[in-house]
Amino acid sequence: MLLDTRAMRYLTAEDWRVLTAVEMGSKNHELVPTPLIERISRLKGGPSGVHRSISNLAKVGLIAKVKEAKYDGYRLTYGGLDYLALHSHSARNFVYSVGSRVGVGKESDIMIVADDKGTQKILKIHRLGRISFRTVKTNRDYLKNRPSASWMYLSRLAAMKEFAFMQVLQEEGFPVPEPIAQSRHTIVMSLIDSHPLRQISAIPDPASLYADLIALILRLAKHGLIHGDYNEFNILIREDKDETEDDPEAVTLTPILIDFPQMVSMDHRNAEMYFDRDVECIKRFFKRRFHFESTTPGPFYKDAKKTVGKDGVRRLDAAVEASGFTKKMAKDLEAAIREQEAKSSQGDAPDSDDLEDESGEDETGDEDEEEEQQVIGTIVPLENEEGLQKLTINDGT
Ligand code: ADP
Ligand code: MG
């Protein structure tokens, strides 16, 4: 499911039209009947033009035929959805070129991209269901229990939710990447020149960074939110020059938060559990990595709860709901994320704890799980534009 943009330049305007038609047809058909594709795409060349495009698209894996289906039809693949999203980002001038995949999470691919001025950004491609849909059986059970749940729908929800949260968080001045655009299951955001906390082996003043991170949890809570996955992978540490010091080498460490699809409201029925888990995660990491333990217990949910909406602060949980990310969407996505979490803890996929070992090394020997592993690397901006491939889109516009 690697994003490979090479086939893009060979797609004709008709191919793009047919691809779009398959996407439109997918809204109410898991398998889009070929006659429906013909009808939606209405090419000048008639059905033969559509068939040529269908065969082009199928050849490069953007759509796929389903074996043993009851009728003749095609479904959109992740590749097809990726192309449609990139097409949209490119048309809006947010993405001009695409670099390599720099990270792979359990449910996302992270790519470096650049706009036409060469400014590098991050493209996050949500891939929910990458694990859930692995086996046919799980797939079938999954869809039976929740008919509206499909990888495409869920991945789009994850991107929508993440983007909505990044927007309100940024408006409130929280340290998050700048959300630039969202299309389908993808988000374009600013690239933070930083190291994930996970990669930092020593810091001069752990107490101060710990205090900053706890303060962030409390600040989120006051605005009605819990991050829900507040761990060393999702906290990026940026080194900023410390202007207050005489020493030109002096830096301050600024934590930047990422990864928001699992954020929950302080009013969520399991809010206390999520809040405590976020706090515990940081405590455990600081103890293990920096041998630092705070002398103050907590913070505790019941105290944080009293501060929600205090001093006239804006409730961001409410703000996101108002932005169009509805309760139903939240529910569908949550069910999928919890299911994924349950799978991880049953040992289907490694979670961050499984990756941790005593020597502090990042590698595990489990190579065949490669797809599921988080590639833990610092994302440094590319030195020049050689690593970036210009997107060539001939869509006739
Ligand atoms: P996932 O949901 O798969 O965990 P994340 O959003 O946490 O995806 O991103 C995975 C990794 O990619 C992070 O741990 C971080 O190293 C890197 N990353 C993500 N977004 C950015 C960004 N805006 N700037 C720099 N690095 C990023
Ligand atoms: Mg993450």
From TrEMBL:
Q: Which cofactor does it need?
A: Mg(2+)
Where does it sit, as one GO cellular component term? nucleus
Q: Which reaction does it catalyse?
A: L-threonyl-[protein] + ATP = O-phospho-L-threonyl-[protein] + ADP + H(+); L-seryl-[protein] + ATP = O-phospho-L-seryl-[protein] + ADP + H(+)
One Gene Ontology term of the molecular function aspect: protein serine/threonine kinase activity
Q: Is Disulfide bond a UniProt keyword of this protein?
A: no
Q: Where is the composition biased (Acidic residues)?
A: 350-373
Q: Which GO terms describe its biological process?
A: maturation of SSU-rRNA
Q: Where is the RIO kinase domain?
A: 67-310
EC top class, as a word: transferase
| EC number(s) per entry | 2.7.11.1
State the InterPro entries in the record: Kinase-like_dom_sf, Rio2, RIO2_wHTH_N, RIO_dom, RIO_kinase, WH-like_DNA-bd_sf, WH_DNA-bd_sf
The record's region (Disordered) falls at: 338-397
Could you tell me the keywords of this UniProt record?
ATP-binding, Kinase, Magnesium, Metal-binding, Nucleotide-binding, Serine/threonine-protein kinase, Transferase
The keyword Phosphoprotein is annotated on this UniProt entry: no
Q: Which Pfam families match?
A: RIO1 (PF01163), Rio2_N (PF09202)
Q: What family does the Swiss-Prot or TrEMBL record give for this protein? A: Belongs to the protein kinase superfamily. RIO-type Ser/Thr kinase family.
Question: Any idea what this protein is called?
Answer: Serine/threonine-protein kinase RIO2
Name the species this protein comes from. Trichocladium antarcticum
